Amino acid sequence: MTKATFSERVLECEQTLYRVSMSMLKNETDCEDAVQSALLAAYEKLDTLKNEEFFKTWLVRILINICNQQLRTRNRVISLQDYTDTPSVSDDCNIEIKMALEQLPVKIREVVVLYYMEDFSVKEISQILKIPNGTVKSRLSKGRKLLKLSME
Asked: How far is CA 92 from CA 20, 49, 89, 100, in A?
């Protein structure tokens, strides 16, 4: 993959990377840092990408690893205000849905965001998160139930 192709593919994934990192980190600054770190890591490890067809999946996996690393290393609490002031899920998403998503456990929230907001398939999410397809499906089911309860 050439530098120009890498740049083009990154621009295509830009919004997805932002939304995925924001759904996990809930802070604009941390989100930007994670995306930048993921892009740098991806560029440095570009030779490990076996199939360019899976570039987006590969890049999102790198981003999720970096976000998880940031979550492990920080010990501060992020207020709900930080999360709701930014267009973290989508521009047309209302505050009730954002608050309901906020209440989901991280593992369930990341699957829900990848599936419903980023249109990844169950198989792609399975590859990104390195979990079985059945686990993705069960987390989606649990996420739907929890969101329904929260929205009622």
From this structure: 16, 34, 9, 15
Number of domains the chain contains: 1
DSSP of 1-27? --HHHHHHHHHHHHHHHHHHHHHHH--
CA 82 to chain centre: 17
Q: Rounded to whole angstroms, how far apart are CA atoms 106 and 137?
A: 15
Q: Domain with 74 in it: what CATH number? A: 1.20.140.160
What are the tokens at 52? 């360019």
Write the pLDDT tens digit of every residue in 71-88. Answer: 877 644 444 444 444 444
Could you list the residue range(s) of the whole structural domain that residue 39 is in? Answer: 3-151
pTM: 0.61
